[in-house]
Amino acid sequence: METEAYLVGDPASHAFRGPTERNAAMFGPAGRWYVFRIHQVHCANVVTRRGEAVLLRAATPREGPLGSLRGPGRLARAFGIDRRLDGSSIRTGAVRIVAGVRPTERILSGPRVGISRATERPLRFCLAGVADVSAPRPRPR
DNA sequence: GGTAAGATTGTCT
DNA sequence: GACAATCTTACCG
């Protein structure tokens, strides 16, 4: 699993300039989906706190070809995630995150991908040893 | 109402 | 590595 954090006061975050119709879910309660679309691609986020969210960048598929869930667009498409899911609960919505797993591997961090501001902040995270992460691969510190 | 830009991806060089 | 695809949101007038 590979994720990126978007925090309060983060100029790269959609929530940076305050609530709008698009990012309203980010200002709602935690545990909801925030789904946005860009270049005809959907990206799925989980709202962690008010004004903050975690982007799901990639995951290792339990079945199917390796790499089919690499990248926010592919991951969202594979799970059928679109704007209809925006604002719904990650526990009871159409697409659900069932259970957390206590990681047995080291968590690596690195620069986020595809943004033009605050690119130096190491807010991208993934487990050491997983194959499906975007380049450049985060490194241990 | 018009326009510029984007948390991406795939294709071409 | 660079760029086009293609459309929604944001921002300005």
Sum this structure up briefly.
This protein has 141 residues and is mainly beta.
Structure write-up:
The protein is mainly β. The chain has one helix at residues 72-78; strands at 2-6, 33-38, 41-49, 52-58, 107-110, 124-127. Strands 2-3-4-1-6-5 form a six-stranded antiparallel β-sheet. The longest helix is centred in the middle third of the chain and has 7 residues, at 72-78. The mean pLDDT is 90. The protein binds a DNA duplex (13 and 13 nucleotides) through strand 2, strand 3 and helix 1.
User: Going across the major beta sheet, what is the strand order?
Assistant: 2-3-4-1-6-5
Q: What number is the mean pLDDT?
A: 90
Span between N and C termini? 19 Å
What is the strand tally?
6
Secondary-structure element order, as H and E? EEEEHEE
* Count of separate DSSP helical elements: 1
User: Roughly what fraction of the amino acids lie in strands?
Assistant: 15-25%
From the spread of the alpha carbons, the general shape counts as: globular
Radius of gyration: 14 Å
Low-confidence stretches: none
Major sheet characteristics = 6 strands, antiparallel
Structural class: mainly beta
Task: Looking at this protein, list some descriptive labels.
single chain; about 140 residues; mainly beta; six-stranded antiparallel beta sheet; about 5% helix; about 25% strand; DNA-binding
